[in-house]
Write a structure and sequence with these properties.
Length: 458
């Protein structure tokens, strides 16, 4: 499904030769017949549909009896008893940071995402040269890579918290030149980081919007009340909300967070502002549970999702936990209570109408590339989202913040054929998103077991 035009583009833009199995002839057809199709807009599973794909694009989605003629050379998949969802998108990934410490290059973990049905990833703060190279490998090797959308470095105070992927911006007057530089890297997301103060943050938001870019923030010095009023588009991590609903008189002792009352006027007022400004929140529950709060719990530490991760990364994770002082938050019971509060707040945000994203912060310790998004979906459902809403977060909402909702995020004629074929209904049990038979990326049909063989085990 990779036309000659795109092949040329891949080789020239990518700079990395595509392998033979990445390439299919132009004008190839695929039909998935008699399948159930998840309609992202309505949240319904539509029975007995046929999806026809031409090259990399969905040509039509119709009731099975109305699909019209399908070219005889088309690859046909019997979809009876199968459920098709849009390709999943992970809204919070790093393709350089952490991997570089473990001496793993981002391209090595790309097949892990695709094997898990994650057909696009949103990088959220990396060193642009290396991140661009990883994105180019993804273009050149579509049969083993998700689409990679890159981000600015972490725009931070001086010195930046993360010196490897941060960039100091201390004066609003520096912002126009910074954006002129970033424009050459085709970044889709601008990320404000924890040390940034309000004047610089506001200048970044204004310049980002002038250039049509999504501006997101991992907050610290800049409060969400200020950032939301200034027009920030999204907040990374549930902490960027949670940390600002704690009244100043609450004692900061281990365990206090898990005992907070979220039904307070301060909390409701902040949530009302998020709703009013339609500010996206990306809770990244996976990194809070797996890395920050509960990395010592055997179900997390020894989770089977970690098995296919390259050994260099798995061996590095415990060292990085030590360096970063994780687990944080005191005794195990206190940490469990704190995590429950993060989930409670996530449910409150959803019920109030705050638009949510689904991201993971992979490959931070114990947050495995790809499979952690299924953990995130499960934790979102545990937090109170219906399965259809969790799926919408991981597809259409995530596509929207990438500026890609016309091409990605739902299954409709004219959209890119990024699909996941499941053997069980995820609306009945969100864990059924793991029952992946095939992943289709731009019309290329991929076998998850074969993709895992492309991940180095050393
Ligand atoms: Zn991150």
């Amino acid at each position: 499904m990779w036309s000659i035009r795109w092949l040329v583009a891949a080789v020239v833009v990518g700079g990395v030769a595509a392998t033979k199995e990445d390439i299919k002839a132009a004008d190839s057809w695929l039909a998935i017949e008699h399948c159930s199709v998840f309609d992202t807009e309505s949240g319904q599973m539509l029975p007995d549909r046929t999806i026809v794909v031409r090259d990399s694009v969905i040509d039509r989605v119709t009731p099975a009896g109305e699909a019209g003629p399908i070219p005889p050379e088309a690859q046909r998949i019997d979809g009876r008893g199968k459920f098709v969802i849009p390709g999943l998108i992970d809204a919070h990934v790093h393709v350089v940071h952490v991997l570089d410490f473990a001496h793993v290059t981002g391209d090595e973990v790309l097949p892990l995402y695709l094997a898990a049905g994650v057909t696009s990833i949103r990088s959220t703060g990396d060193e642009p040269v290396a991140a661009t190279l990883v994105a180019r490998v993804a273009v050149a090797q579509p049969a083993s890579s998700p689409r990679v959308f890159t981000c600015s470095p972490l725009l931070d105070a001086d010195p930046p918290i993360h010196r490897d992927v941060g960039r100091a911006v201390t004066d609003p007057a520096q912002v126009p030149a910074l954006f002129a530089d970033l424009a050459q890297w085709d970044v889709r997301t601008i990320k404000i980081y924890a040390g940034t103060a309000r004047p610089v943050g506001r200048a970044i938001i204004e310049e980002g919007h002038r250039r049509g870019l999504f501006v997101t923030a991992h907050l610290g010095a800049y409060s969400p009340q200020e950032a939301v009023a200034d027009g920030v588009d999204g907040l990374e991590h549930i902490w960027s909300v949670f940390n600002y609903i704690i009244p100043p008189d609450v004692p900061r002792v281990p365990g206090h967070r898990g005992r907070l009352d979220l039904n307070t006027p301060q909390c409701d007022a902040l949530i009302a502002e998020l709703v009013k400004h339609k500010t996206y929140v990306d809770p990244t529950l996976a990194v809070f549970r797996n890395m920050i709060l509960l990395p010592d719990v055997p179900e997390v530490r020894d989770h089977p999702d970690n098995a296919p991760v390259p050994a260099r990364l798995k061996e590095f994770w415990p060292k990085y936990l030590l360096q970063t002082g994780c687990p944080q938050g005191g005794a195990l019971d206190d940490r469990r209570r704190e995590f429950a509060k993060f989930q409670e707040l996530t449910g409150k945000l959803y019920r109030a109408g705050v638009p949510l994203l689904a991201g993971t912060d992979s490959p931070e310790p114990l947050v495995p590339p790809g499979y952690s998004l299924h953990q995130e979906l499960q934790m979102l459902v545990e937090s109170g989202l219906p399965p259809a809403a969790a799926l919408r977060a991981a597809t259409l909402n995530n596509a929207t913040v990438l500026g890609e909702k016309d091409r990605l995020g739902s299954i409709a004629a004219g959209k890119l054929a990024d699909l996941v074929l499941l053997t069980a209904n995820p609306l009945e049990d969100i864990q059924n998103t793991r029952r992946i038979e095939r992943v289709i990326r731009g019309g290329l049909v991929c076998d998850p077991a074969e993709l895992l063989k492309r991940v180095p085990q050393k």
